Amino acid sequence: MNKPLRIAVAGLGTVGGGVASVLLTRGKELEERAGRTLDLVGVSARDKSKNRAANVSKIAWENDACALAKSDADVIVELIGGEEGIAYDLVKSALLAKKHVVTANKALLAYHGAELAALAEENNVALKFEAAAAGGIPIVKALRESLIAYGIDSVRGILNGTCNYILTQMEATGQSFADVLKDAQKLGYAEADPTLDVGGGDTAHKLAVLSALAFGVTPNLKSMKIEGIEHITPDDIRFAREFGYRIKLLGLARKRGDHIDQRVQPAMVKLATPLADVEGPFNAVVANAGEAGPFFFEGRGAGEAPTAGAVIADLVDIARGSFGAPFGRPAKRLTRNDTQPGPRSCAFYLRFEVLDVPGVLAEIAGRLSESEVSIESMIQRGRAPGEPVAIVMITHESVETSVASALKAIAASAKVVAKPCMIPMESR
Ligand code: NAP
Ligand code: HSE
């Protein structure tokens, strides 16, 4: 019989509580799968007196999570969060102490992934992070191992459960952005700081991890364009439907020559395509794997069970001795991808909030025409007398920078009462 794998879990919140609970209640099944027992031997969190999802009263408790790196555990599971501070210190000291590490911390990986991967390789231990991108979807394993034969051309997806939940609920109930965000927080989907979710930062962290796995680039946020969903209104969601689209926050990474174009932005996705049908806190990823073609993955991207499940899968891999370079290539070979993506060419959805006065439409059309942006279709909806009206347009394929410069000129008009909204239309 192989000796037990000794596991210490730091952080007993949504994810850590779930991991501890599975380890304590599903030991027999895990042993069958892993070929050895998975023993929970240590835990740490801030407040020992808190009620937890798992009864950890018989497990050794450490007030200082970093002390776990000096314990006799074989694996440290970091489920505290944050790119610096205790999470970084714990993971680094655990790797230096030749302990395997499992983490769900995409922020940590986005900022320090290359350095930590190099440390894991030098110390011949695992650094595994299936839960860090798209929660329960096994996309890390897929990009690291399963889809490598023909290379990856692009990865795009819905990577933030909170944003997808908010956009879905806004469409279904007409509730405001702020009310739906509160629900997402109560349900345990949102980050401790929810601006990371709604501002696109969390999607960017996950995209950085997926890009590193798919393309062999160092995780790097500086090379990304990042936009969130805070400015999306119920009007945009309704108009999108009228045009046959749905708004989704997408993370997109694709090869452009030697460069990997990476961006996070709300996009119009055609109804009845797989990404448009992804609802609530679900995530989805489309990976274009060269001649092997596109693969579509969908599943729960946030919440206790899916995320804890992904952590357990990593632990079972470690128990079996199955791990390699964290990003699938030696960390020293990861290449830098420092430049921001250039302007994209596609159709755009535009919304203007304007005074309902003569000449306003002509002024908008004139500015767009000066920038060589051609209009494909348009909707104008009247409101109560005296209230601003929304003018909404879809352009023909246009260069992003031309549209942006026309919008800047339009925004300066006295007839335009709010910053115009511009959302790219995804062609597939
Ligand atoms: P959470 O519910 O806020 O839990 C955080 C845990 O860390 C709590 O148990 C907290 O202790 C503990 N903690 C905080 N500071 C600590 C310190 N200095 N020393 C020891 N423990 C400390 O967070 P979570 O949602 O489980 O997320 C954990 C990680 O998983 C994050 O990196 C997150 O991005 C990632 N993740 C989360 C999800 C999700 O659906 N929630 C999905 C994928 C990835 P107390 O309980 O005593 O306050
Ligand atoms: N806050 C994240 C989300 C948790 O909403 O997707 C999962 O990483």
Structural account:
This protein is of the alpha/beta class and about 425 residues long. It has three domains: about 5-130, Rossmann fold (3-Layer(aba) Sandwich); about 140-300, 2-Layer Sandwich (Dihydrodipicolinate Reductase, domain 2), CATH 3.30.360.10; about 345-425, Alpha-Beta Plaits (2-Layer Sandwich), CATH 3.30.70.260. It has 13 helices and 18 strands. It has helices at about 15-25, 25-35, 85-95, 105-120, 140-145, 160-175, 175-185, 195-200, 200-215, 235-240, 305-320, 360-370, 400-410, and strands at about 5-10, 40-45, 60, 75-80, 100-105, 125-130, 155-160, 225, 245-255, 260-270, 280-290, 295-300, 345, 350-355, 375-380, 390-395, 400, 420-425. The strands form four sheets. It has a six-stranded parallel β-sheet with strand order 3-2-1-4-5-6, sandwiched between helices. A hairpin with a 5-residue loop joins strand 11 and strand 12 (about 295-300). Helix 3 (about 85-95) packs parallel to helix 4. The chain is elongated. The model has no long low-confidence stretch (mean pLDDT about 95). L-homoserine binds next to helix 6.
